[in-house]
Amino acid sequence: MTYGHHAPFPTRWNDNDQYGHVNNTVYYEAMDTTVNVWMIGHGLDPLGSDRIAFCVSSSCEFRAPASFPEPLTVGLRAGRVGTTSVTWELGILRADEPEPIATGRFVHVFVDRDSRRPAPIPEAIRAAIERDLVV
């Protein structure tokens, strides 16, 4: 799978659950953090922008376990890019393995900060998505 952006995902001691592998909630945290760090790096100010992004849907499919202290990577690309929403496609990857051990999907809808009504994706973010993340 090809991703336009990669972010490190260093596992932590407390990420392992009682079964000895990274708990499913940690995968969601890593994916959510990757998307939001990417958006902030491309112009989204969660505390000051006139438009903000709400997650309206998310999912994750687990294919293989991982355990601390294994270093992982989160791959990010854009799936569907609409007028007010973007579907992010993510993969949790081991070093030097092309197939993800987990795949995820987050749908963000951009809304006006005050009215909370859908609003167009900010131009700077849309341009960066189209340039870097549509593969």
Structure description:
With 135 residues, the chain is α+β, with helices and mostly antiparallel strands. The chain has one domain: Thiol Ester Dehydrase, Chain A (Roll), CATH 3.10.129.10. 21% of the residues lie in helices and 37% in strands. Strands 1-3-4-5-2 form a five-stranded antiparallel β-sheet. Pfam families: 4HBT_2. Belongs to the 4-hydroxybenzoyl-CoA thioesterase family. Keywords: Hydrolase.
Quick overview:
The chain is of the alpha+beta class. Helices cover 21% and strands 37% of the residues.
What structural keywords apply?
37% strand; five-stranded antiparallel sheet; 21% helix; alpha+beta; single chain; HotDog_dom_sf; 2 helices; hydrolase; 135 residues; Thiol Ester Dehydrase, Chain A; elongated
